[in-house]
User: Which sequence fits this backbone?
């Protein structure tokens, strides 16, 4: 069973995180970075999925300084609230909270990071700015292209939906490969934004299964 724990950020602020121990012999730790909607049932399900795969998993609540226990629906009001929190949360502050999760997990083995949407952007930034990560898997992050020159400090892969209306997958691939041709950028045909999220309007099962398999392979080889 998952539990909510408290960690301390670099600024001394105590934020909550959803945490679950591995179901099987421990392979390492995974930091799961949220979408804009907070630590909702989809994030919790992903934490549980990683725990079932043998990882101690933790998802930091990155909006706690603004609104404790924030969760929003996938509707226009929920999107607007999530975007407002994401834009008002300094990137360095979020990366500091990710580093606190790394510190929490690292005493027990390697630490990998995976993130979706808002978390996909933060995963790419963490790969280049947070030391001590073993591997990173970034899903459809809107800030990846603008930060494509950032050099990952660990093995990193990127997942994009080809029909994502807000993130032009081909342009992101071009930007990343201009600077880092060795970084795999996977583009999934027929998949849009949020294809890993199992909400009916977003989920693309075939793409999600393949991206998860690629991410597990990366993490296990790190």
Assistant:
């Amino acid at each position: 069973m998952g539990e909510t724990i408290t960690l301390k950020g670099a600024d001394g602020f105590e934020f909550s995180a959803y945490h679950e121990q591995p179901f099987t012999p421990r392979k390492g730790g995974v930091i799961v970075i949220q979408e804009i909607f907070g630590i909702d049932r989809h994030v919790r399900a992903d934490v549980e999925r990683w725990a079932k795969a043998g990882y101690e998993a933790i998802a930091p609540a990155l909006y706690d300084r603004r609104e404790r226990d924030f969760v929003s629906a996938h509707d226009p009001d929920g999107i607007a609230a999530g975007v407002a929190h994401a834009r008002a949360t300094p990137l360095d502050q979020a990366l500091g909270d990710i580093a606190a999760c790394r510190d929490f997990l690292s005493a027990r083995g390697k630490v990998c990071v995976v993130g979706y949407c808002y978390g996909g952007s933060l995963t790419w930034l963490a790969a280049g700015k947070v030391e001590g990560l073993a591997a990173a898997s970034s899903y459809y992050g809107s800030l990846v292209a603008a930060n494509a020159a950032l050099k990952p400090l660990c093995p990193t892969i990127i997942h994009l939906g080809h029909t994502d209306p807000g993130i032009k997958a081909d342009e992101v691939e071009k930007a990343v490969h201009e600077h880092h041709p060795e970084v795999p950028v996977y583009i999934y045909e027929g998949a849009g934004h949020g294809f890993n999220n199992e909400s009916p309007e977003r989920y693309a099962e075939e793409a999600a299964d393949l991206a998860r398999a690629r991410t597990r392979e990366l993490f296990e080889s790190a």
Notes: The chain has six helices and eight strands. Residues 129 and 153 are 7 Å apart (CA to CA). The chain has a mean pLDDT of 96.
